[in-house]
Design brief:
- The complex is a heterodimer.
- Chain A is α+β, with helices and mostly antiparallel strands.
- Chain A has one domain: Nuclear Transport Factor 2, Chain: A (Roll), CATH 3.10.450.50.
- Chain A has 7 helices and 6 strands, in the order αββαββββααααα.
- Chain A has a 6-stranded mixed β-sheet.
- In chain A, strand 3 and strand 4 (68-77) form a beta hairpin.
- The termini of chain A are far apart.
- Chain B is an alpha+beta fold.
- Chain B has one domain: Nuclear Transport Factor 2, Chain: A (Roll), CATH 3.10.450.50.
- Chain B has helices at residues 10-19, 46-57, and strands spanning 60-71, 76-85, 90-99, 105-113.
- A 4-stranded antiparallel β-sheet of chain B has the order 1-2-3-4, covered by helices on one side.
- The chains are: A alpha+beta, B alpha+beta.
- The interface between A and B is medium-sized, with 30 and 32 residues.
């Protein structure tokens, strides 16, 4: 089972979470709410993972007595400091992840309070993708619509080196 | 408990999460003192780090450990729990500890459940 934990960690290197590793009825546990893991996987693959430049796995642990895994990963974002986080993973009897809980380093919470176009985009996307009143298709469309000419201009004015990121979104979303 | 009590990592686990008190002898000379936000503070030495740690943890009434994942071969420890403060507030907490072959702490990082929590800003261990 430690191999599954390692494979999960590698998803961050590939910037793509594997839906088949998750129990679709499983939950991402958040402090104020919980969301289905299927939402979480879609959100990452359609939106959040594209802000990641590089991922480094610091640790992968597994406890066979409780069927629980633990990954420690450093993510290098574009234009913001490295994001250190831990994910707690619970596996069901079918070896699918049925519960995920994410923990950040405290400094990352402070980064989220800063205003730069990248953090703003991440926050807007997070809020959008956590909404329960709209379906997946609408979320994808609203995500595409976010990248207006004005937003692209703001991002490139903030850091011209982010052209690569803008081009990625343009290509993916056919903007 | 993952049979932790008979392992090399147990004394350090006990010091941090049960006794809530550390001292410089627990740490490797290679330990990089992190503030709670994991920013490496080059001016802080291990002794000062321990003082900050012990002072911060004096605000803690109890740590309710929910999961422990110990790895004896690599001397690593993952801990998930709820930290309860003397003022009745509480936070979800995760920690990662790595020891060297002499059972000294090489890495000690703390994390909170992923959401913005302004009350944590500026606190450091």
């Amino acid at each position: 089972m430690i191999e599954l934990v390692k494979r999960y960690a590698e998803s961050y290197h590939a910037k793509h979470l594997e839906m088949e590793m998750h129990d679709p009825k499983g939950l991402l546990i958040c402090p104020v709410d919980s969301i289905p893991l299927s939402w979480y996987v879609n959100y990452n693959n359609f939106w959040w993972m594209h802000f990641v430049k590089n991922a480094t796995t610091k640790a992968t642990l597994y406890n066979p007595e409780t069927n629980v895994g633990f990954v420690s990963i450093d993510l290098e974002y574009y234009s913001v400091p490295t994001f250190h986080f831990i994910q707690f993973l619970r596996f069901n009897d079918q070896h699918k992840i049925d519960l995920v809980r994410t923990y950040w380093n405290f400094g990352w919470a402070m980064e989220l309070t800063k205003t730069n176009p990248i953090m703003k985009a991440v926050q807007i996307g997070d809020v959008l993708w956590m909404r329960k009143d709209i379906d997946l298709e609408t979320k994808e469309q609203l995500t595409r619509d976010y990248w207006t000419d004005d937003v692209i201009k703001e991002v490139l004015n903030f850091d011209p080196n982010l052209k690569h990121l803008v081009d990625t979104f343009k290509h993916l979303y056919r903007i | 408990m993952n049979n932790l009590e008979n392992t090399q990592v147990y004394p350090i686990f006990k010091a941090i999460f049960q006794d809530k008190h550390v001292q410089p002898s627990y740490f490797s000379q290679n330990f990089q003192c992190n503030e709670l936000d994991n920013t490496i503070t080059k001016t802080t030495n291990i002794s000062n780090y321990c003082d900050d740690f012990n002072q911060w943890f004096s605000q803690v009434n109890n740590i309710d450990i929910q999961h422990i994942i110990g790895e004896e071969k690599s001397l690593e420890l993952g801990v998930i729990g709820i930290i309860k403060f003397n003022d009745q507030t509480q936070k979800d907490l995760a920690a990662y500890v790595q020891l060297n072959n002499q059972s000294k702490i090489l890495v000690l990082n703390f994390y909170v459940n992923a959401h913005i929590d302004a009350s944590l800003y500026g606190r450091k261990i």
